[in-house]
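Posted in: Protein Modeling Q&A

I'm a second-year student putting together a small comparison for a lab meeting, and my supervisor asked me to include a predicted structure for LacI family transcriptional regulator. I've never done this before, so apologies if this is the wrong subforum. The sequence is pasted below exactly as I got it from our records. If anyone can share the structure token output, I'd also love a short note on what stands out.
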Amino acid sequence: MSDKKPTINDVARQAGVSKRTVSRVLNGSASVGERTRILIQQVIEKLDYSPDKQARGLASSRSYLLGLIYDNPDALYIDQVQRGVLDICTRRGYELVVHPCQYQSKNLVQESLSFIRRSRIDGVIVLPPVSESRELAAALREEGCQYVRMASVDLDDHANIVVSDDRAAVSEMARYFVSLGHQHIGFISGPLNYRSSTERLEGFRDSLRAQGLDLTQDSIAEGRNSYDSGLECANRLLSQNPRPTAIFANNDEMAAAVLRVAVSMNIRVPEQLSVAGFDDNILASRIIPSLTTIQRPVAAMATLAAQKIIQAIESHGNQVQRDDFLVKPHLIIRESAGPYSDN
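Accepted answer (user: helix_wrangler)
Welcome! Here is the predicted structure, written out as tokens:
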């Protein structure tokens, strides 16, 4: 058996099409019919063919590199994002380069641009809270770098953004807590200088008000979206008298910290305290009790972001406006939340 690496000519010959048609499929062109595209992809998989990225880059003046810029302490969130992006990159012949940064840094824009120039990336996906920076978005446009922002608020043209409707999701959570009979409800926010955090806080508070309840300032604790900050916030809320009978946390990591503090204070969950989080990361269904949460389809959002940015790159920014920019998280009910009891 020959060890010779298959070429695009081999793919074209076995598929019975021209090399140009194979090239169009590899570059995601919409001009190839569905049956032909499927046939070519089957041949590519059969031959285990992969394009020479260096040759492709020289021929097209592209690097076939996508960048990912983020500042988020939640490793499980970042893992889901990378899985979603890499799913598209693998199929379309791109590689992913990551750039952790400090959102609060005064050099955020310059450091991000330096990363883009140094890595010669074709486009960049920006995660919250970095995606909330107007200055960075303006600098990317000025630089001529294709970008897609993942966010909780509609901040940009729909071709350049993927939005999670967090406000609607937390409103659903507030209604669920009230339906269980809870009236004294605590809230652990993320950093309140992040739009995503304020969006969730305002959405939750507005929903409670619509149901005749108020989220008092004493019932709100500002966390940092980390487990340790969740411990601090939970200790503060659960030391109050009277203490909340339900707590919603800005992410699953801080919600898990609430469960830990409840155990240390001999507070039974969900009999004496209902707890809920946001994200539905991999641990939410595995901890005891399993966590009621908002399932945000992070990997699907990242996949959509990658599809959008590759479309923009390969159409030189002249892509057709896409309406598919909004995803809807939804409530997942598990063991950590239950009816209010005064016992």
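A couple of things worth pointing out for your meeting: Residues 98 and 316 are 23 Å apart (CA to CA). The mean pLDDT is 88.
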